[in-house]
Design goal:
Helix content: 10-25%
CATH superfamily of the largest domain: Diaminopimelate Epimerase, Chain A, domain 1
Order of helices and strands: EEHEEEHEEEEHEEHHEEEHEEEE
Distance between the termini: 11 Å
Number of helices: 6
Strand content: 35-45%
Structural class: alpha+beta
CATH architecture of the largest domain: Roll
Shape: globular
CATH topology of the largest domain: Diaminopimelate Epimerase, Chain A, domain 1
CATH class of the largest domain: Alpha Beta
Radius of gyration: 18 Å
Largest sheet: 18 strands, mixed
Number of strands: 18
């Protein structure tokens, strides 16, 4: 008996900048009957950084499970944006306010026109001064490449990233990642990866430009990472003292194959403290791919 099944994966570029670039993510609808093994097989065959598997939820509008080609992860920003952009495009999403259930809780989703925004939690910070030397070594950087008085920090708004502030876009462009060493540090601190950034941008409208390295999850470099841009906006507000409520984070410009992305982060601030945030952008459908799997 043939137990094969065809699964359609929608590929969308999330966080596109002026309709171009962005970070590709997969979206699989009606995924309720797919096992963990099925989902991992699909993710490996598609080979992009993350795929969102959408199924029914008892406490939110949709349940989203995120997989890389190597493993499941708790949250994925660009795959969330891709999912809700697509649901809006095919008119499954009827309202501008929605929600997702993930493996570690419920998050609110808000649509503003054709932009999708996802809720993240208040930031938690861990100082990484004791690991500064090895982190710099893993990127081919020196102490004087960093922004003065801006410490390397682990920041978590749902996922953990180490944020490394460099003083210029040229330093950012010329980073030489040692993926084995980055992977070791990522394992030690349970990271998705590194988010290296500079506030020295080519476009004065952008607050920062960044690069994300996540070899622990099979991601050498990613073009747009909403779950890292959220922590960065918090860092800019709390640590660098840029007291704004909305930030524009560019990413992907300095990849070997550039794919500029733009992530918008809006902070909810009360009495000078960040209570939560919404990170978002636009997702554009690029193609549909049919995958055969064994059920």
């Amino acid at each position: 008996m043939d137990r094969s099944k065809t699964v359609t994966v929608q590929i969308l570029n999330a966080f596109t900048e002026n309709g171009k670039g962005g970070n590709p993510a997969g979206v699989v609808l009606n995924a309720d009957k797919l096992s963990d093994k099925n989902r991992l097989e699909i993710s490996k065959k598609i080979g992009i950084s993350e795929i969102a598997f959408v199924s029914k939820s008892k406490n939110a509008d949709f349940k989203l499970d995120f997989y890389t080609p190597k493993m499941q992860i708790a949250h994925c920003g660009h795959a969330t944006i891709a999912t809700f952009s697509y649901l809006k495009q095919i008119e499954v999403l009827k309202n501008d306010n929605s929600s997702k259930e993930t493996i570690d809780g419920k998050r609110e989703i808000k649509m503003i026109g054709d932009l999708a925004f996802m809720e993240q939690l208040a930031p938690q910070y861990v100082n990484m001064d004791h690991k500064e030397h090895i982190i710099l070594k893993s990127l081919g950087l020196k102490k004087n490449d960093l922004i003065p008085n801006a410490p390397i920090q682990l920041v978590n708004t749902g996922n953990s990233f180490i944020l490394i502030p460099v003083k210029s876009k040229m330093v950012l462009k010329n980073v030489i990642p040692d993926f084995d060493l980055i992977n070791e540090i990522s394992e030690e601190f349970d990271l998705i990866g590194y988010y290296v950034f500079s506030t020295n941008t080519e476009n004065s409208e952008n607050d920062a430009t960044a690069r994300m390295f996540g070899p622990r999850y099979g991601i050498s470099e990613e073009a747009g990472t909403g779950m890292a841009a959220g922590p960065l906006a918090c860092y800019l507000f709390d640590i660098i003292n840029i007291k704004k409520k909305s930030f524009l984070i560019q990413q992907g410009k300095y990849m070997k194959k550039p794919s500029p992305s733009l992530i918008i982060v809006n902070l909810q601030v009360k009495n000078g403290e960040i209570e939560s945030l919404m990170a978002g952008g636009k997702g554009l459908l690029k193609q549909k791919v049919d995958i055969q799997i064994e059920m």
